[in-house]
Design goal:
This protein is of the alpha+beta class. It has 22 helices and 27 strands. Belongs to the glycosyl hydrolase 57 family.
Length: 731
């Protein structure tokens, strides 16, 4: 009879901030609820459970009975509640002060909900850096949980990891448990007996070992085909029954039990790391493909598994390099955090409900899911990016109020807002905020509509992904029919047909005020294929001057162009006026043109955050006539006005142009991978204003007014607030 070992089962449940209610509900019904139903039938099985704050917040509102059941099981000692940062940020992506703030806030919330604060924490996506040790200890936590992959990258062998370790940073001590990658792959995918047999082998080699499993609760019902496997086919019942039948030598315990009952194995210092798959996803696409091809070439070599586990992937922070849109969110979040930190210097201000609300919105805007992309949609899902900006814009507007701004106001400032060692321009009013990058084509790269709490430039470029190779191979009959870039399912699933025909890539940022110099007679189809651009205008550097007058501010951007045989001077001026704070005025001027030399000049705008396949989201022309859904392609001539409406969002965005223009408009769609398979995702509407002319003089001008009407959104929010207050009074 083998001597007893301790098995820790840690379940991590999470849904992102901003996910659809239906997704929350389906995950609850398919995973979280049935798992608890089975667990209650096996009181000898104990687990450690982590629910992210964004998920717990939803459960408290929609299924308070689940909270009551958790409280009872926690009181009985069958479940240990784990803490962590409130809204599941990647700790490496947020300032230390926010790490401590989020962990402390969630610990306090869990203490109020369940009667005691958590002793340990779940690290989001197990992205680890050693400095997190002191942040966790500062928040009152005793231990955390990471992958054995972290430990192996520090030089530990497999059989050295059956227990837990001490680590420290700046003299602050923290217990660290390694999660078994072996168990992450057998639970719940292999027969339960395989896990029991492996545990028996461990117990024979190392009596009284501590072995930890930790992974997503969504594996138990939400992942493709897992509900039938785990519940309908009885996998979980069989597993828990086996644990119960073998409890004489396998004791299921919590992390806190292990800390209280077993001494640590020793000291460790772990490298910056995450689980193996995450380190691979963080690699540039080309390097990812090299690793995939290497695996494909050597997978039948018996020595390959030993070699592969010694290969290191990338570093999570490089997602901010791989995806510039992620970096934009990161910089916006950092700006909000820095501004709140300044306000904390006034203790009275920091104690106000408005400050606490701004801080909570910041924390929600730090939720990790849309900041990266791996096997799931992540960054490619517009509603998740929009949710981040919703909370950051809300926090920004609250900060403006905390700073004493009221009524109509405008301002313009410049500094390095996006951490590229160059100056950007922030032009703002009480109704909108715009960010301009003079060093990158003079693009308007963020445009926040305060009333709708929406960033109309939360766009996403089309770029190569490793799984695009899989899609192309499938279309041509190549490959072996397996999806080697996903960890959820090896099966190929296509949510739309002919996705290989939709693959296309952008060679400039999909932003606004993107200037193009096009060939004469260029067609819309050629433009969409990035075919024949001069490729000088899109990324040029402008010199910038800021102007401030009473109730009026401007940013003047100017550069010398190199357009073939001519080199005109291009000036574009962005202006906000307090008399019309919802209108961004943009004046374009070309001087030193060569008379008689043809010019085909275009200005591109992009509009994100608006759905493409709904009747209440549509284009309209200069006469106010609806042109069809935002997913349609438009080609208009001699127009002075063009608009986009999203009735659900409560937003009307229109362009008013002084010089009649020809207009192209079309959807920008990416091909990406999610839990459900490969899919086409609408990212933005590209609207191109263009003028093809032969100048008679050396000057050419046009003025564009971008009007952002969010009055419907504001009225709707005020009505909801009044209704909420009325209900509170009645209660």
């Amino acid at each position: 009879m083998p001597r007893p070992i301790r098995l820790i089962l840690a379940i991590h449940n999470h849904q992102p901030v901003g996910n659809f209610d239906g997704v929350f509900e389906n995950a609850y019904q398919d995973s979280y609820l049935p798992f608890l139903d089975v667990l209650e039938q096996y009181p000898a099985v104990r687990i450690s459970l982590h629910n992210s704050g964004s998920l717990l917040d939803w459960i408290e509102k929609h299924h308070p009975e689940y909270i009551e059941r958790l409280r009872r099981l926690a009181d009985q000692g069958q479940i240990e509640i784990l803490g962590g940062p409130f809204y599941e940020p990647i700790l490496a992506s947020i300032p230390s002060r926010d790490r401590v703030g989020q962990m402390t806030a969630y610990g306090n919330h869990l203490g109020e909900l369940f009667g005691s604060k958590p002793r340990g924490m779940w690290v989001p996506e197990r992205v680890w850096e050693q400095s997190f040790t002191r942040d966790a200890v500062s928040a009152g936590l005793e231990y955390t949980v990471l992958d054995d992959f972290h430990f192996k990258n520090a030089g530990f062998g497999e059989e050295e990891l059956y227990g837990y370790f001490e680590t420290e940073d700046d003299g602050k001590m923290l217990h660290v448990f390694p999660i078994s990658e072996k168990l992450r792959y057998t639970i719940p995918f292999a027969d339960p007996e395989e896990t029991i047999d492996w545990l028996r082998e461990v117990s024979e080699k190392q009596p009284e070992a501590v072995v930890a499993f930790g992974d997503d609760g969504e594996k138990f019902g939400t992942w493709p085909d897992s509900k039938k496997h785990v519940y309908e086919d009885g996998w979980l019942v069989r597993f828990f029954q086996l644990l119960t039948d073998n409890r004489d030598w396998v004791h299921t315990v919590t992390f806190s039990d292990a800390v209280d009952q077993v001494a640590p194995l020793g000291r460790c210092y772990l490298p910056d790391c995450s689980y193996r798959e995450m380190t691979e996803w963080a690699l540039p696409t080309g390097r990812q493909l090299e690793l995939i091809h290497l695996h494909r070439k050597h997978r039948d070599d018996p020595e390959w598994p030993e070699v592969r586990k010694r290969l290191r992937g990338g570093f999570w922070r490089n997602f901010l390099v791989k995806y510039p849109e992620s970096h934009e969110m990161y910089c916006r979040m950092r700006e909000i955090s820095d501004r709140l930190q300044e306000l904390r210097k006034d203790p009275e201000l920091a104690a106000t409900a408005m400050f606490r609300s701004a801080e909570d919105h910041l924390y929600r805007g730090q939720c990790n899911c849309p900041y990266w992309h791996g096997a799931f949609g992540g960054l490619y899902l517009p509603h998740l990016r929009n949710a981040i900006y919703y909370h950051l814009i809300t926090a920004d507007s609250l900060i403006e109020q905390l700073q004493g701004k009221a009524g109509r106001w405008v301002e313009v400032t410049s500094r390095d807002f996006n951490l590229d060692a160059r100056q950007e321009v922030r032009i703002a009013s009480d109704q909108m905020v715009g960010y301009v990058s003079p060093a990158n084509g003079g693009h308007l790269y963020e445009l926040d509509v305060r009333g709708a709490r929406t960033n109309l430039l939360a766009t996403l470029n089309r770029r190569p992904e490793p799984y695009h190779e899989t899609i192309l191979d499938h279309a041509t009959g190549g490959g072996d029919g397996a999806n080697e870039t996903a960890s959820v399912s090896g099966d190929l699933k296509f949510k739309q047909e002919d996705l290989h025909l939709k693959l296309g890539y952008d060679n400039y940022p999909r932003k606004s005020l993107v200037d193009h110099v096009l060939p004469a007679g260029m067609s819309l189809e050629a433009f969409q294929q990035n075919d024949g651009f001069l490729e000088e205008a899109e990324t040029a550097v402008f010199q910038t001057t800021l102007k401030r007058e009473d109730g009026r501010v401007s940013a003047v951007l100017e550069r010398r162009c190199q357009w073939g045989d001519q080199s005109p001077v291009l000036t574009k001026t962005l202006t906000l006026d307090s008399s019309s704070p919802s209108m961004l005025h943009v004046d374009y001027e070309l001087t030193e043109l060569q008379p008689g030399t043809p010019v085909h000049f275009a200005i591109e705008f992009n509009f994100s955050s608006m759905a493409s396949q709904a009747d209440d989201r549509y284009y309209y022309d200069q006469d106010g006539v609806s042109l069809g859904r935002l997913g349609t392609q438009q080609e208009l001539h001699e127009q002075n006005r063009f608009g986009l409406v999203d009735e659900w969002l409560g937003l009307d965005a229109s362009l008013e142009i002084s010089r009649p223009t020809n207009i192209w408009a079309y959807p920008v769609e990416t091909v990406s991978q999610s839990e459900g398979g490969f899919e086409l995702v609408h990212q933005s509407c590209a609207v191109i204003l263009r003028w093809e002319f032969t100048p008679e003089q050396s000057e050419w001008k046009t003025s564009i007014g971008l009007l952002l009407d969010s009055s419907a959104a504001q009225a709707r929010r005020l009505a909801a607030k009044a209704e909420s207050q009325s209900m509170a009074v009645e209660l």
